[in-house]
Design brief:
This protein has no helices and 14 strands. It is mainly beta. The chain has a single domain (6-144), classed as Jelly Rolls (Sandwich), CATH 2.60.120.10. A 7-stranded antiparallel sheet has the order 1-4-5-6-13-8-11, with no helix packed on it. Strands 10-9-12-7-14 form a 5-stranded antiparallel sheet, with no helix packed on it. The chain has a two-stranded antiparallel sheet with strand order 2-3. A hairpin with a 4-residue loop joins strand 2 (19-21) and strand 3 (26-28). It starts with 5 loop residues before the first strand and ends in a 6-residue tail after the last strand.
C-alpha cells in the first residue's frame, strides 16, 4: 500500500514487545492504539510479526471521526470484521460504485480481490472493530485501488 505501517510516534513499532509466549499460547493484553496504516489506528494485534502464525492475523482497529481508509484490495486473503462501536460505510466493487453500511454489533466478510474504501459514518465518534485476516503478514498483501480507473 502507499502508506507503510508506523507506530503512532512516527517510528516502526516492535510488536513482539506486546506479546508474551506462555509456552505455546501467545498472550496480548494491551490492544490500545500503538500503530497506524492507511488512516486507521491499530493495537499491536497478533500476527506473524509477533507470533509463530503463518496464516492468520487479528487486530483491534480504530477509525477516527470522519476517517477514510483509502480504496484498496486484499490480494489472496479473506477478512472478517466484528464492529464493536460506531458505523462504517463500505463503497466497493468495480469503481467502488456499490455501498453498504454496518453498525456496532455487525460482523461482515470481505472477499479477496474486492476493491473497497471504508468511511467512518460519524464526524464525532471513533469506530472500534476487531479485524481478522487469513494472512499472517497483515498489510503486505494489500494494494491500492484507483476507484476512478474503471
Amino acid at each position: 500500500m502507499v502508506e507503510e505501517e508506523l507506530g503512532l510516534s512516527g517510528t516502526q513499532s516492535d510488536l513482539s514487545d506486546f506479546v508474551t509466549d506462555e509456552g505455546g499460547i501467545w498472550s496480548l493484553r494491551d490492544v490500545e492504539k500503538v500503530r497506524g496504516w492507511n488512516n486507521i489506528e491499530y493495537g499491536a494485534g497478533l500476527s506473524g510479526k509477533n507470533t509463530p502464525s503463518t496464516g492468520l492475523s487479528m487486530n483491534r482497529a480504530y477509525i477516527p471521526p470522519g476517517g477514510i481508509a483509502k480504496a484498496h484490495i486484499h490480494v489472496g486473503f479473506d477478512v472478517m470484521v466484528y464492529l464493536l462501536k460506531g458505523s462504517v460505510r463500505h463503497e466497493f466493487g468495480k469503481g467502488c460504485r456499490h455501498s453498504v453500511v454496518h453498525s456496532a454489533g455487525d460482523m461482515f466478510y470481505i472477499e479477496p480481490g474486492l476493491p473497497h474504501e471504508v468511511f467512518n459514518c460519524s464526524e464525532d465518534d471513533w469506530v472500534h472493530a476487531v479485524v481478522s485476516r487469513s494472512d499472517a503478514s497483515e498489510w503486505q498483501n494489500i494494494v491500492p485501488y484507483d476507484r476512478d480507473s474503471e
